[in-house]
Amino acid sequence: MNNNMPEISRTPSSRRDWATRIQIHGILLKKPFGHASNKWTKRFFLVKDGYLMYYDANEKKDYDRREFFNIHPKGVLPLGECHFKESREQQQPFCITIDSPEIDVSCSMCPNV
């Protein structure tokens, strides 16, 4: 296993009720979608009930402290009909691209290593 990969946390179900339970969460780098750019932005991501939501990176410490997530993310991507593929990005060795036909968007992201 590559030790450079960031740790993605799975929320312990014993501490949270069904309404706030998150399947997976962590910090990733995200390229903007909607326009071409080479700038990567650090974001806090979480997956809940088939949706990928992202926030400013500092939301992670708030989430860890409060033990529930903010209901006002910077963005939401429904994962229902998304296609995931490995992608190659300059100086980012572990990237994925998510294509969503539901909302006609493509999002590239990679671990914050």
TrEMBL record:
The residue ranges of the PH domain are 21-113
Instruction: Name the Pfam families for this protein.
Output: PH
Please report the name of this protein according to its UniProt entry.
Pleckstrin homology domain-containing family D member 1-like
Native species: Aplysia californica (California sea hare)
Q: What is the lineage of its organism?
A: Eukaryota, Metazoa, Spiralia, Lophotrochozoa, Mollusca
Q: Which gene encodes it?
A: LOC101848817
